[in-house]
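FIELD: query
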Amino acid sequence: MSLPCKTKARDNGVTVHTEISTVNKKKVNLIGLNREELENAISSLGYENFRAKQIWHWIYHRGVTHFEQMTTLAKTVRKELDQYFDIQRPSIIREQLSSDKTRKWLLGPPGGGEIETVFIPENDRGALCISSQVGCALSCKFCNTGTQPLVRNLTPSDIVGQMLVARDTYGEWPSSEGRNLLSNIVMMGMGEPLLNFENVKRALRIIMDPEGIAVSKRRITLSTAGYVPLMERCGEEIGVNLAVSLHAVRNDLRDEIVPLNRKFPIDELLHACRAYPGVNNSRRITFEYIMLKGINDSEADAKELCRLIRGIPSKVNLIPFNTWPGAPYECSDENQIKKFAQIINAEGYSSPVRRPRGRDIYAACGQLKSDTERKVRARN
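FIELD: result
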């Protein structure tokens, strides 16, 4: 990040020394900077730290998109800020609304590439599904995103920007903790969040900041395919809820459908789940289990699943497979899903069947994919 450099300035906006140089003339995007970085950026123009606090409030509590809207700052200050900084969100390439009111955005983040973000509304609340990478390196066989190669990790700006776009769309400014339709966040979009750990951590800390967007960590869930080395740090340094994409109860099958299992097999993954910081009966781990017809949906599979997770405060989300062009699997029959759920429930575990949302716009679980990649695949 290249910041302007000023020798001195008075905080009333009257500059004493106006000689400013930049290593890079491109404006610095303030979205995605943490508090310390924002203070450094603002102090580089000679302003006091309280100005950074004001700007933070305008960006993350009021949701402004231009410096001119920051009316508690003098016009000269706003003009100078606009000369060197941006408040840049991802651009909206396309926005789709499902028949069930699920909304999907195809976004062009400032760092390049294309990502998809999905909002799933309920009666008085809803979950925003945020992406962490452009593409994905894990190649899970049931996931459309996995057919797209990893392009890059998203920056904190790219990640936080998805939340800002959603709040813009639903008019949820100023921010107020726990009282918005956009009440929950799930890091379940494109990519594996733990393979972009530092950027995801920085972004979620901004989103959780009580003087800004103020989403409680209790309302944020991070989903991993099982990148064991960073699971403990996720609990300690971010402190959000954990969801684990299990999807199979045997290593040979999980090796096939979740290739990351070859590095971190089931026993190792479940050991990390048992050790996840803060896990208890009121803060359970969610095991995600996609229902694939004739592959992983037998009654024996259900019983083995119960055996594997015994002693872990947890629940099991059963996910009917959402198909996509070229998908190698079919969804389990409805009756088979019910039998599977009954076995898990009988062992004392909550086992809701996730109702598919947004299938008609390819916004359901496992269907996300950059539009450019989808068009290329369609042509081939």
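FIELD: remark
The longest strand covers residues 91-97.
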